């Protein structure tokens, strides 16, 4: 699973604790907003199949409190997602392997494209909110 890396984690966690005490709903709202932006981006990078179920299948989990912060997950209900993401063998009905279909890497590519932008957005949001709540 791919995740976001944040430098200056101790300072980030201190600010998050302050915000958590004074405005916990703002954390949930921001993570929901970032999750929705991520899901739009991954759908844009996902190929349109014959049914469209691959694009429609993405869902977000509820925000969870974890040690040192929060997390919000992204998953898909499409059972063939891994075949499109990572690639798969081409096999005839008799079982003979006839080639390879390369992966599209839509989730991996989206995470790489958005990582810096998301971290910067969260850092700016956290700094502004921390200032607002510290007055």
Class based on secondary structure composition and strand pairing: alpha+beta
What about the largest sheet?
A: 2 strands, antiparallel
Averaged pLDDT: 90
For the CA atoms, what is the radius of gyration? Answer: 19 Å
**Helical content, roughly?**
55-70%
Portion in beta strands: 15-25%
Overall number of strands: 6
**End-to-end gap:** 39 Å
Compute the number of helices. Answer: 5
Instruction: Give helix and strand order, one letter per element, not per position.
Output: HHHEEEEHEEH
Tertiary shape? elongated
Low-confidence runs of at least 5 consecutive residues: none
Widest sheet: strand order?
A: 1-4
Which tags fit this structure?
two-stranded antiparallel ribbon; 56% helix; elongated; alpha+beta; 5 helices
